Amino acid sequence: MRNTWLSPRSAIWEYWTSLIACLFWIQYSCGMPHVIRIGGIFEQTDGPVSLVSAEELAFKFAVNNINRNRTLLPNTTLTYDIQRINIYDSFEASRKACDQLSLGVVAIFGPSHSSSSNAVQSICNALEVPHIQVRWKHHPMDNRDTFYANLYPDYSSLSYAILDLVQFLKWKTATVVYDDSTGLIRLQELIMAPSRYN
């Protein structure tokens, strides 16, 4: 089974930037209310001890930092509603998203597992509520993800960045290690580089 947890540093950075982006969207599109409620749906693992994910900790940390820095939102306080779901339960994710939307959240963060995430994204798209994720997703051919923000680097940009590093270091060979079926798609520029750049 693949590890779905982010490192604490990268998770904090991704949630911090996504919260700031969400807040700017709210500020310029509908004014600033005194209280802004944000929803977070996070997966929990089954086991003897229920661990809090790095994503959830980063989410709470980012909200608390924004509330402490009164220059960002001088007359506004962020609150959050956190819901935890089982990792492969898309029905529960849909139900929790509906519960949060009934509370008046302006955006929903997570979940990161694809089946649960797709269910929440569908609800958010239908109701025109921003859905923010920190996982990689291949770009769809249609334009149905209009209220979807993904903070994971674009696969082609990531591939070019790795290619630039290989060329800068003048490596003659490189090994590509991937852990899922989309790994080769994400590194396509690097794999095709020998035929393009000699």
Word description of this protein:
With 198 residues, the chain is an alpha/beta fold. The protein folds into two domains: 8-150, 3-Layer(aba) Sandwich (Rossmann fold), CATH 3.40.50; 155-197, no CATH class. The protein has seven helices and five strands. The chain has helices at residues 8-30, 54-68, 90-103, 114-127, 155-168, 183-186, 188-197; strands at residues 35-44, 77-86, 108-109, 131-133, 148-150. The protein has a five-stranded parallel sheet, sandwiched between helices. Helix 4 (114-127) links the parallel strand 3 (108-109) and strand 4 (131-133). The longest helix has 23 residues, at 8-30. It is globular and about 60 Å long. The N and C termini lie far apart (38 Å).
The share of residues in helices is 40-55%
CATH level 1 name of the largest domain: Alpha Beta
Euclidean distance between termini CA atoms: 38 Å
Count every helix, treating DSSP H or I runs of 4 or more residues as helices.
7
Strand content: 5-15%
Indicate the CATH architecture of the largest domain: 3-Layer(aba) Sandwich
What Rg do the Cα atoms give?
19 Å
Kindly report the name of the CATH homologous superfamily of the largest domain. Response regulator
The H-and-E topology, N to C, reads as HEHEHEHEEHHH
Q: Structural class, from helix and strand content?
A: alpha/beta
Strand arrangement within the widest β-sheet reads 2-1-3-4-5
CATH topology of the largest domain: Rossmann fold
Subcellular location: Membrane
Protein name: Glutamate receptor, ionotropic, kainate 3
Keywords: Membrane, Receptor, Transmembrane, Transmembrane helix
Organism: Nothobranchius kuhntae
